[in-house]
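Weekly puzzle thread! Below is a chain. First person to post its structure in token form gets bragging rights.
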Amino acid sequence: MLVYTNIGAQLKSFFIEIGELSYFTIRFFKEVLKRPFEFKELIRQCYNMGNRSLLLVGITGFIIGLVLTLQTRPTLMEFGAVSWMPSMVGISIVREIGPIITALVCAGRIGSGIGAELGSMRVTEQIDAMEVSGTNPFKYLVVTRVLAVTLMLPLLVIVGDAIALFGSYLVENIKGNVSFMLYFNQVFDSLEFGDIIPATVKSFFFGLAIGLVGCFKGYYCEKGTAGVGKAANSAVVFTSLLLFIIDFIAVFVTDIFYDL
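Winning reply:
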């Protein structure tokens, strides 16, 4: 009986949090259209999030390209299909692996950072002080950060995809003596707009989810230093789950359009 009670309490807490996040999202879309527009803060957040995440995204993409090619090449060699390697790796990375891996890396790097930063400001009553002084903290702190993540994530995905393909090329060059021009000609010949556009569009939604959840967890952080850690940790966990759900919906919708 106690187990069912705990499960019921957890489900209730989960649905309450979903409702609060939905209200938070609606408030964001209302505030983003109102003046004043904090362009300077937006540019600063874009630079911080993009610049600080670039190295991590690049290293992750490079390793993904190396590992994917090293693991797949022996299997393709058994079937005499190693010439399909550039096409297979290019489509896999651009369609799915690049966007979701980059989004997960940014969820850990950016989402936790936003949650911890806003949580610290809530605990130290800086957000309350901004409200008292007549400044709109939601507009200045939340809207700028969410927009910054939404705008920067597609760019990080493009950089991560390019570096992953370069890592794959290095393996092919060493193992199969494939030239740079031949490899990337095959990659781009296999790619279509139907591969690139859905991946780019869902990257914007990934960035929106990372920004909204990170800001939500930090903005309504519990009191105390433990609340800051909890906000950062729960932001990563909740965002990761949400990213997989968005990815499933994006793939499902894209598949419907392909069938039409």
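Puzzle host: Confirmed. Bonus trivia for everyone else. The CA atoms of residues 59 and 72 lie 20 Å apart.
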